[in-house]
């Protein structure tokens, strides 16, 4: 029997084998949310561009208040006004966000003053820099604010706007073809006949592709024959950057994805040391990269999360790694698998993991009812209080 490949090695193999994204387009910030930057972004300005007030109050030269506690108001500066230099021994009425006049070095909030006409008495000691937000406090001119490969979040869009950009260069969206296989599969909405089950992996994979930020170019279902699989893969390859398939990758004679690839491309079949999800295919078919996920629904889910998500990201130009694992304690005992790392579907409460009773790779509901994967390395027995890595579903 060939040795099973550790899952992190398989991730590296897949990433290395995939070409880098190259096609880019320029989009306005209005259309940039969720897109992947294809350029590093460097700020050409200081943010804020000039020192401004953090409070509504009075701008002063702090040393003027060493000799007196009362100053007269010589100008009024609202946000958006251009101030004139502060006349010595006076103060300026100033509002939050307004530019600090030359000569002033502190702002006193109005609650700490007594106002009588234009005479302001300062009730507390004032230090230089009090309540002043210096130029470049948020972003210094010349600083890199975002790196190519970043998928733009709402926060990133705000940052881009704060340095005055109206458009950015992004990679064109990745087009993903989705293939499901199997004579036993019926589309939801149709009655089931003997021997049939519903095709859940199709909608599952499409939803995973979309929630990872990519586009589904085409979906096809192939019955269990080399001809049907070949026709579907050809159609998918014609309009996709990459294909994700489900099923047909095991050793049975009804598993035709492998055979089709062997005839029309190059097959790299990996037996990966994970459970669920052992048989994973990485291949090129009709010149298009293909990731063949095992058909058992939990195996499909786990292999999408661990491999396909990162493969799609690489092909889309996105810098992405496995999510950061959290450490959790276990409240149960379980004998470790001899050769495969297990990804148990578990509930986590207050840092303590409890497994779902149903851990079959054919069962999908368990994943919907739990919080994420407990990663149990091969040959590790679980006992109460032992600690393992936990990957929440919502981190994928
Ligand atoms: N003799 C062996 N048999 C199997 C092995 C093995 O090493 N030797 N590996 C097992 C493991 S592990 C897995 S995982 C599966 C992988 O099988 P395939 O990827 O070839 O998938 P299928 O045989 O087509 O289907 C497996 C299972 O999943 C159901 N399925 C498939 N597609 C869908 C779908 N779109 N929606 C819902 N359910 C789907 C299918 O009905 C089967 O029950 O092989 C083991 N066998
Ligand atoms: O490893 Mo398979 O993925 O058990 O179901």
From TrEMBL:
Keywords: Magnesium, Metal-binding, Molybdenum, Molybdenum cofactor biosynthesis, Transferase
Catalytic reaction list: adenylyl-molybdopterin + molybdate = Mo-molybdopterin + AMP + H(+)
Pfam families per UniProt: MoCF_biosynth, MoeA_C, MoeA_N
EC number: 2.10.1.1
GO cellular component: cytosol
GO biological process, one term: Mo-molybdopterin cofactor biosynthetic process
Top-level division of the source organism's lineage: Bacteria
Pathway(s): Cofactor biosynthesis; molybdopterin biosynthesis
Family matches, as InterPro entries: MoaB/Mog-like_dom_sf, MoaB/Mog_dom, MoCF_biosynth_CS, MoeA-like, MoeA_C_domain_IV, MoeA_C_domain_IV_sf, MoeA_linker/N, MoeA_linker/N_sf
Cofactors demanded by this protein: Mg(2+)
Keyword Transferase: yes
Family of this protein: Belongs to the MoeA family.
NCBIfam families with a match to the protein in the record: Glp_gephyrin (NF045515), molyb_syn (TIGR00177)
Role of this protein: Catalyzes the insertion of molybdate into adenylated molybdopterin with the concomitant release of AMP.
Name of this protein: Molybdopterin molybdenumtransferase
Organism in which the protein naturally occurs: Marinomonas gallaica
């Amino acid at each position: 029997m060939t040795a099973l490949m550790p899952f992190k090695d398989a991730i590296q193999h897949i990433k290395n084998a995939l070409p880098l994204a190259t096609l880019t387009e320029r989009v306005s910030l209005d259309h940039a949310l969720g897109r992947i930057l294809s350029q590093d972004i460097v700020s050409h300005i200081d943010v804020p561009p000039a020192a401004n007030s953090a409070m509504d109050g009075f701008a002063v030269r702090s040393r003027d208040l060493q000799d007196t506690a009362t100053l007269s108001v010589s100008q009024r500066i609202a946000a958006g006004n251009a101030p004139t230099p502060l006349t010595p021994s006076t103060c300026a009425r100033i509002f939050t966000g307004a530019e600090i006049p030359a000569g002033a070095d502190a702002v006193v909030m109005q609650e700490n003053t007594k106002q009588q006409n234009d005479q302001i008495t300062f009730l507390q000691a004032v230090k230089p820099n009090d309540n002043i937000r210096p130029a470049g406090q948020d972003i210094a001119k010349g600083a890199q604010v975002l790196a190519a490969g970043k998928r733009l979040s709402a926060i990133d869009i705000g940052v881009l706007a704060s340095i005055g950009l109206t458009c950015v260069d992004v990679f064109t969206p990745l087009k993903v073809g989705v293939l499901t296989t199997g004579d036993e599969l019926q589309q939801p909405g149709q009655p089931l006949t003997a021997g049939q089950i519903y095709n859940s992996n199709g909608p599952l994979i499409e939803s995973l592709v979309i929630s990872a930020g990519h586009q589904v170019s085409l979906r096809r279902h192939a019955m269990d024959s080399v001809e049907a699989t070949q026709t579907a893969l050809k159609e998918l390859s014609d309009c996709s950057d990459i294909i994700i398939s489900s099923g047909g990758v095991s050793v049975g004679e009804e598993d035709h994805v492998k055979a089709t690839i062997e005839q029309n491309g190059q097959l790299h079949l990996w037996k990966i040391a994970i459970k669920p999800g052992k048989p994973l295919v990485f291949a090129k078919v009709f010149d298009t990269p293909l990731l063949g996920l095992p058909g058992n629904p939990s195996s499909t889910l786990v292999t999408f999360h661990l491999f396909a998500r990162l493969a799609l990201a690489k092909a889309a130009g996105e810098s992405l790694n496995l999510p950061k694992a959290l450490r959790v304690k276990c409240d149960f005992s379980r004998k470790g698998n001899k050769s495969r790392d297990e990804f148990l579907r578990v509930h986590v409460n207050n840092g303590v993991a409890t497994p779902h009773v149903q851990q079959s790779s054919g069962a999908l509901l368990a994943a919907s009812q739990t919080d994420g994967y407990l990663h149990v390395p091969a040959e590790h027995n679980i006992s109460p209080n032992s600690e393992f890595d936990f990957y929440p579903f919502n981190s994928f």
